[in-house]
Amino acid sequence: HGYWSGDRCDVCLSSASDGMFAGATCTACSPGFYPAGTCNVFCRDESCGGHGACGAKGTCECDASPTRGYWTGPQCGTCAAPYSGSNCNLTCAAATTCSGHGTCVGD
Q1: pLDDT tens for residues 64-101?
Q2: 3-class DSSP state for residue 2?
Q3: What is the three-class DSSP state of 84?
Q4: Do 89 and 70 touch, CB atoms closer than 8 A?
């Protein structure tokens, strides 16, 4: 994935069509580019809305834990079902939470 002289690459391929490669043998992806082997998808953790991180395929892998919340969507900006609240860590089941005498906001 590059041009070489001796035992290391002098210039690695760096274009949208060829991929953004780095490293002594031009087999690693440049920072922020995925997936390994093609390096043609750009993703930064900041793209995941503060509720996830870029995964090996270059897409956001959203948080899913009681402390960080349960998020979904391309940029992890939506609460995953059945969660709600500003931190996407609250659930409400009308039958139990409201004793069967009400509805959950958002139902």
Answers
A1: 999 999 999 999 999 999 898 899 998 877 677 777 77
A2: strand
A3: strand
A4: yes
The whole-angstrom separation of Cα 55 and Cα 38 is 15
Gap between the Cα atoms of 70 and 61, Å rounded: 11
Q: What is the DSSP string of 35-81?
A: STTT--EE--GGGGTTSEEE-TTSSEEE-EETTTEEEESTTS-EEPT
What per-residue confidence (pLDDT) applies to 3? Answer: 53
* Helix (H) / strand (E) containing 20: strand 19-22
When pLDDT is cut at 50, 70 and 90, the band that residue 24 belongs to is confident
* Distance in angstroms (rounded) separating the CA atoms of residues 60 and 38: 18
Residue with structure tokens 């580019």?
33
What residue ranges do the domains of the chain occupy? 1-42, 45-102
The answer, yes or no, to whether residue 52 has pLDDT greater than 90, is yes
Place of tokens 């409400």: 92
